[in-house]
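Hello,

Our lab assistant flagged a job as stuck in the queue for most of the afternoon. It eventually completed. Since we weren't sure the result was trustworthy after the delay, we are filing this so someone can double-check. Below is the sequence as submitted and the structure that was eventually returned. Let us know if re-running is recommended.
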Amino acid sequence: MLDFPFPLPHIESTPKRVRVLFAGEYIVDTTEALLVWLKPNYPYYFFKATDVPQKYLVDAFQSQKHHLYDIVVGNKRAEAAATVYNDVEELDGLIQIEFSVMDAWFEEDEQIYVHPKDPYKRVDVLQSSRHVRIEINGVEVANTTRPRLLFETSLPVRYYIPKPDCKLDLLVPSELATQCPYKGTASYYSVHLPSGDLVPDVVWWYRTPQLECAEIKGCVAFFDEKVDVYVDGVLQPRPESPWAASRRGSHI
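-- returned structure --
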């Protein structure tokens, strides 16, 4: 991971109109949202108190550290969904709303997912002719000379491989699905090896990726942290990443 270039918390304004939908109502509609990095990974949206009407906020819990509110619209309640921090001077007078419990978030008229995009991160997809092979426990599961290489700031390069270049008979659809603000909603496969071993959720793909990553449509990627990747005949070291520490159940 790259070192974060600013002290935390780091706050920046954004020119985007931001709206938060809950129970059929926009509980926030502002052009004065703030991007706040509480940790280096990505920013959160914070709002001025005047941008979150008090009629939607119901006291839930208060401590020296923070003040939590339920968000209530009609008969629908999101418990402890709004936070005011009492112990961080830079965040005084600001409200954070839990992203995942709202019904939808919009920047301008475009819906966003998982968290706001980091303006200091970029994702590039490049067509390549490098020879990429994937093995799991000595079994070749993919072999291509037409991968798409996805470069994402501070993360390992990912090799997206056209499905026809994979051993599709070994891929078993999984019920797992995850979301990425840059790429979209990922579906997963497990790999059923000839030995009978099942390697769960080690392959993912995007049926309808976000526009900036459209080139990976119809391709699959493997957790390089869990498989053997050969590029131009050279075995690649397994990368250190947020998914390397726990190789059993971490997903992107």
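-- support follow-up --
The delay was a queue issue, not a problem with the job. The result is valid. Residues 246-252 have pLDDT under 50 and may be disordered. The two ends are 15 Å apart (CA to CA).
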